[in-house]
Please model this.
Amino acid sequence: MDLTLKVWRQNGPDKPGEFKEYEAKGISEEASFLEMLDIVNERIVESGGVPIEFDHDCREGICGTCGVMINGHPHGNQKGTATCQLHMRKFNDGDRIVIEPWRATGMPVVQDLIVDRSALDRIIEAGGYISVDTGGTPDANLIPVPKEAADASMDAAACIGCAACIAACPNSAGQLFTAAKLAHLNLLPQGQPERYDRTIAMVEKMEEFFGSCTNHGECEEACPKSISINNIAFMNRDYLVAKFKDRRKAGQT
Amino acid sequence: MTTLDAKVPAGPIDNKWTGHRFDSKLVNPANKRKYEIIIIGTGLAGASAAASLGELGYNVTVFTYHDSPRRAHSIAAQGGINAAKNYANDGDSVFRLFYDTVKGGDYRSREANVYRLAEVSNEIIDQCAAQGVPFAREYGGLLDNRSFGGAQVSRTFYARGQTGQQLLLGAYQALARQVALGSVKLYNRTEMLEVVTHDGRAVGVVVRDLVTGEISSHSAHAVVLATGGYSNVFYLSTMAMSSNVTAAWRAHRKGAFFANPCFTQIHPTCIPVHGDFQSKLTLMSESLRNDGRIWVPKSADDGRPANDIPEEDRDYYLERIYPSFGNLAPRDIASRAAMRMIEEDRGVGPLKNGVYLDFSDAINRLGKDVIEARYGNLFEMYERITDENPYEVPMRIYPAPHYTMGGLWVDYNLMTNVPGLYAIGEANFSDHGANRLGASALMQGLADGYFVVPYTIADYLADWLNIDPLATDHEAFQEAEEEVSGRLEKLLSINGSRTVDSFHKELGHIMIDKCGLARSKEGLEEALDRIPRLRNEFWSNVRVPGTDDTYNTELAKAARVADYFELAELMCRDALEREESCGGHFRVEHQTDEGEAKRDDEDQAHVSAWEWNGYGEAHTHHKEPLTFDYVALAQRSYK
Model:
């Protein structure tokens, strides 16, 4: 198939960016979207140009490194699919494809299609863990976990941290990412001791970088792992409870 | 040639680790903060080591070339992690896991290391469960297990088809906690390009910021490499695109011996190659072989679609040849069997390069819902890539380069022969011999990081109390920095006519063809002739665009491919000198009448450890003899 690409090029974080057009001719339908970009890049290099920079790694849809806006949709418009798992058979011969980086103030562009997602690490560092040191833990079967809780926790833990949810949100909100990690830990018995402190710490860290949720639901639609927006409701509930608990702790009830 | 000393502690095997921990020197809690430790890589081994050492009170600095530590390729492991819990009450024990692993590795691993691995396996599960890893559960709330290749017990713990992801997130979260506490300093998008040595020991590293191109030096009392394997030498493999050998290779060039480089694992269940633009191969978890049956048509060139081939015309060849293990035969055995089927022109699919993995029996027996609950995400992934629905037509699979058992030589303490330089996880060679069993890579990565290196490193550090690390303005660091920037400048200045990938692909073709599933003297000699010529062409005709002060993927790739050429040559040399077949190393000259691997325990029961002698010079071959006191050497049989 023959395609025309309109790609965002930006030579560094503080440089101005612009769209440039590239012809992508003779692309196989069996190629993945990123393999199509590989082919375009090989041709750019061969003709003396500087290739398009984009983030990618495992190409199995699990590491969360890749992710670009494709015709205005994070990871393109195949539901539940990361960019690397999107294949060219989902496009038509002659298509014009607009490719842009994630856009959010909390995730500045590094180069071309690459953005800085380190804010997500900061949110995890704020409390996205269970505080156990290595060693001395009890036998794993001493902590029974109801199968339903384990399954619901796993549904949330499947988040790959790609930030498509933030890119999709008109407010650039980080709620789905944060809520997914909170649900993973807060649903498990192991996560209970720190449940409310964790919720406050992560939510407040999130708000340093990202906008507020106004229930558009674009995040769930864009999520390559189809993580449910219900997690956000669960997070909001825990946050509210946490605030009350906080006041009680401070003797203000 | 010298004989290497692995420093295996004396005493009975089940007391070696306990005794060794008592005999090792300790660093008292107040003194730990006087030590600097550098860790390279944030996969299972690196993240778990960084978190554990940070918790202990050491000053840890960790580098990853990813944008976040959570992206390391451990994340892609699907099926599970082994442990000798015997929760299934089916006769498992530490000794059985040890035995299976030594046998699975075709008797080319070090007994004492493997025993320790089996011993700490149970603690890993406890640790991960306490961290909140959402392992699969039974209805009563206890942990569920499944079977994996090469074992007749169910000892594999799993989190759907994303076990690696969940274990890595557990380790990443433990690491994030230490970063927040200030005990670990994290540099992301930073690649290690040189190990710095002084007076024969490791004193630090030189790294490059991938965003700004800035080169900087970092010094420490000890350096731990947790940088994974080198299967991308084959170009097409199941590894992530940026997985590379550079850190290990740079250490090798600074004196660390590289052990058993030819021991590479070709995984039997991957999606077959579909075109020459392909950038990587995708693994389908070995766990699928619990319920899927592998077959090819009985007659060559049977052109019928799978569902039109009646039962009597199908050859379930693994069940036929290996009745007691059947579809769960170990990876090396299953891969070679698939290769033979394709050589007999019984391959399936448009390119005749696959075999079927068929779930119709399991779906009929258990129902589609059960299969979907077990493997739903894998089936979806398969469908996205191939556009075929595996609930309706059998999957097509073919062997692909996957894991590398070889790596930096380490002693029992996981220290290389360069004092102060450690290698953990897939980056070392020690536990899997010539073939790794399924669900054992996650086990080893976490064993090394959580439970081995935090103990063994203290024994080395204790002698350096109150001695500051070498200052980074020392000439050893300056020379290393100049070496790195010189190498990158050279790559940018060649401005030839071929892209980095075109060289990498050509190298990969040579390697998979001559040093892949089957190896011959003739083929290896041909490869040893072609690789240096290709390497010379690379250094005179590669085109690396851009500059070194912005993000430049091509430049980073070029530096990695340059190291692959040197590794590839050593792999072929190692394969040529290992005059036997064992595990993943199959020399066509050494096979039984039935076409199985034929070991030579008289002459080849050793680890080959190679010493670098300079660019273009032949390596020196050192040997570590392997003795088997607890597992009797036998012809491996899965029949």
